[in-house]
Amino acid sequence: MVKNSLKTYKNNKKSKSNYFLLLAIFLTYTAFYSQNNSEKMSPKKIVLMGNSITEYWQTYTPLFFEENSFLINKGISGQTTVEMLSRFNEDVINQNPQAVYILAGINDIAQNSGYISIDDISTNIIKMGLLAQRNNIKVVICSVMPVTEIAWNEKIKNANQKVIELNHQLINKSKKNNFTYLDYYSKMKDELNSLTYDGLHPNEKGYIKMNEIIKKSLKGIMNNFN
Question: DSSP states of 29-70 as a string?
Fold first, then answer.
């Protein structure tokens, strides 16, 4: 009787051990599968961070955004780099994107929030890039667009020269910080009158040109995350 009870106890103990072992394997597999499946199902996202040029991009060429539905437009008209920096966590980091394109600086040159030096403008843009980089987000710094005049602030003289100076700093600082630099300026400056409606803001033709410029860059980024 005692021997049978002992044998039954050992069998039960063995069964329980097997049960917990199988349970542990099942839970480990479930967690692994769930994580991998989540990664596969997680939508790829790229944020376009900017001002009015970015904001109205979607309005002028909606088909481009439909075809590239991973793009998240976070342009706000009139904003300077200080304002963009203050919302960068919410509008970029919290979106958990694979990459961010930062197109900023012209409203600083226009002194929308008062005078700011070219050095400080480029510093603010690079600060945004560093925030993204620390969160494993690929950074693309976009050149400031060429300009013939700043219509809403005629006091700003030599605006395009300031743009050239700012772009030069962005090129150097992008190299230093391992950011990608996307050059709109050199590819649009010779056709500026036909690509804008006021010497600065793109018209439909201008946005189509921007689409052509950014396409190769977007394809490269998305291929790296497939």
Answer: HHHHHHHHHHHHHSPP-EEEEESHHHHTHHHH-HHHHHHTTT
